[in-house]
Amino acid sequence: MVSYKELGLVNTREMFAKAIKGGYAIPAFNFNNMEQLQAIIKASAETKSPVILQVSKGARNYANQTLLRYMAQGAVEYAKELGWEHPQICLHLDHGDSFELCKSCVDFGFSSVMIDASSLPYEENIALTKKVVDYAHQYDVTVEAELGVLAGVEDEVASEVSHYTKPEEVVDFATRTGCDSLAISIGTSHGAYKFTPEQCTRDPKTGKLVPPPLAFDVLDAIMEQLPGFPIVLHGSSSVPQEYVDMINQYGGKLPDAVGIPEEQLRKAAASAVCKINIDSDSRLAFTAAVRKVFAEKPGEFDPRKYCGPARDLMEELYKHKIINVLGSDGKAE
Ligand SMILES: [Zn+2]
To answer: Which of 82, 110, 231, 244 lies at 20 to 30 Å from 8 by C-alpha?
Structure first.
């Protein structure tokens, strides 16, 4: 058993309370490798933004759980080295799908876990979520739960259709499970293809797809039921057109990739939405930068020469999100 407190990490409780009060959101960035982690920590340290490092089950399988934990511990020390005196870094399990996986992460130094039982019937979702909460809270680890179903694909979580969260269920769910935050479904979606062209309209000037707006009426109804309760948005990448264009320009093929417009995320961040998950955007930045190097310098075979530019572009993306979308800069001096 390793406590996250020994690793210098923090749970989400205070982060979320401050974010709701301050009208901003905490970035939750997924990481799978060293370059991504370096970019996240540099961006967070330079902007003094609290940050949630997210590890999915897929990342855990990809990078090895022991290595990931030490990387997170290393991230805290790296942040201090960069001059961030009191780093506010949370290590969070993204989309835990079983009690055993959540328990293993709690025991392994995570400061926060998500139990995603949203695909189960309502009562089973409550029972499993409560079981995880009861265990995690013994160690002061915070728990995110989910109600409603997002469309799209993220690692092993996939669903064809979305079901909005039902506002009439949230009080019962939060009360009976004791969860610390709630991921809801209001039209965000996992992956780089959040909407089909049929769901979108086309901008007559550029020919680009314009996605349908998020269901802010559902969000408002949820906030009315649960005033001041931390709300989480998954699947909130914006799929920046510049990266999609770069990928396509340098030999990739991402037709009609579309995400959530940033102005909608800004609006959400100002509400009780206090954690916004961004994964696909950094995957796109990474891939765009690597493709550019390969296209321009076909003789290049030193991974540092293409992973380095990828890291720089991700760092730029993370800073942009922190400062211009989430508003979390300067909130963890
Ligand atoms: Zn998710």
So the answer is: 231
Q: How far is the CA of 94 from the centre of ligand 1 (A)?
A: 7
pTM of the entire structure? 0.95
Cα(116) to ligand 1 centroid in Å equals: 9
CATH code for the domain of 61: 3.20.20.70
Residue 40 dihedral angles phi and psi, to the nearest 5°: -65, -45
Question: Which residues have C-beta within 8 Å of that of residue 61, sequence separation ≥ 6?
Answer: none
CA of 248 to the centre of ligand 1 (A): 26
CA of 301 to the centre of ligand 1 (A): 34
In a domain, 135, yes or no: yes
**Among 16-20, 79-83, 172-176, 206-210, the least confident range:** 206-210
For the segment 268-273, the average pLDDT, to the nearest whole number, is 96
DSSP string, 77-104: HHHHHTT-SS--EEEEEEEE-SHHHHHH
Structure tokens of 218? Answer: 């559902």
The verdict on residue 207 lying in a domain is no
Question: Mean pLDDT throughout 66-71?
Answer: 90
Cα–Cα nearest to 149, from 161, 131, 134:
161
- The SS3 call for residue 36 is helix
3-state secondary structure of 54: strand
Specify the DSSP element, H or E, that contains 280.
helix 280-296
Tell me phi and psi for residue 234, to 5 degrees: -90, 170
Q: Which amino acid is at 102?
A: C
C-alpha–C-alpha distance, residues 313 and 290, integer Å: 10
How remote is the CA of residue 134 from the centroid of ligand 1, in Å? 23
Q: Give catalytic residue positions.
A: 94
d(C-alpha 176, C-alpha 157), whole Å: 25
Q: Tokens standing for 259?
A: 């995400």
Q: 203 in a domain, yes or no?
A: no
Amino acid identity of residue 202, one-letter, is R
Instruction: Residue 57: give the domain boundaries.
Output: 4-184+216-239+266-279+321-326
- What pLDDT digit, counting tens, does each position of 89-122 carry? 999 999 999 999 999 999 999 999 999 999 999 9
Domain annotation covers residue 247: no
Task: Quote the longest CA-to-CA distance of the chain.
Answer: 60
